[in-house]
Hints:
By secondary structure, this protein is of the alpha/beta class. It has helices at residues 7-19, 59-71, 95-112, 145-151, 189-201, 244-252; strands at residues 37-44, 79-82, 117-119, 158-162, 165-169, 173-175, 183-185, 208-211, 228-229, 232-233, 257-262, 268-273, 276-281, 299-306, 311-317. The strands form four sheets. Strands 4-5-8-11-13-12 form a six-stranded mixed sheet, with no helix packed on it. It is globular and about 55 Å long. It starts with 6 loop residues before the first helix and ends in a 6-residue tail after the last strand. 39% of the residues are buried. Mean pLDDT is 89; it is low at 1-28.
Amino acid sequence: MKPKTSTRRNFLTGAAAALGLAALPSRAAPSRQERKRTLRIAHLTDMHVTPPRKGKQDSEAGFTAALRHLSSQPIQPDFILFGGDMIWDALRNSKQGSLAQWDIWKRVVAAETTLPWHACIGNHDIWGWTRNDPAIKHDPLYGKGLVIEQLGMPHRYYSFDQGDWHIIVLDSLQPNAALDTGYSAIIDDEQMAWLTADLDAVPASRPIIVFSHAPILSASVFMPGNSVKQGAFVMNASSMHMDVKRLKDLFHRHPNVKACISGHVHLIDEVRYLGVRYCCNGAVCGGWWTGPFQEFPPAYALIDLFDDGTMENTIVPYETALV
């Protein structure tokens, strides 16, 4: 079924495959008329909501603007997936200070949307991992307990079916006291066993989309200025999944895994590798409420999922009405 192509096209296609820049479909992609959208998800990640901070824009007003912009969309999403880092920071904050941030986040969500929503855990949502206070480790809400309670999450990782699709929400972040960040981006063994079983249980005919806070595979993790040291690229273990090869191998055994969606680095990119689209969708807060981060403005994404297993990931910049 392959049409004849020129030598130049063969070279370019082969080069793209070798570099992992694009997946080569086995057949022509279906036209828009041949497929039907069965699910629309709004992906809002990295809101970093907090009480007013000196030198920062009003995060409550900015988050409100994002949700109001979403509510003006002519085709509303079936649900919102909040991608983590909902609040400014709980890693270093007191319990009281963390709860004050959660109060603002929940107040805005309750006031500005009636859409159902789900969430995954971001590093800044985790309470106390970098606080030098051994006493708080005895609090049952220490670590991820606080965010799970505040959001009413079923677990730190979970999955569900909606429409024709299976949706997986991962917990990207595991404690690592050796790093200044307090965490590594990696799947723990318990979660990996669950994920393997979950994928095995999904019929091959049902497409799968995976959400995580930290990107599983990303090109933009090399963009920050501190990524080059002593003439070599250096990537922090908290920037992108350290277990990317292990996850890639797992997904490759399940061709119905179509996309992996993330945030975390506040930059926007897409890598297509072995038939999976890895989309890093920027940040609602842009550059932590100081305007754009590098070239990327505050934004959210609309993800359209179709009955043939394809998807469209559309980045939507919004006006915050803030200077």
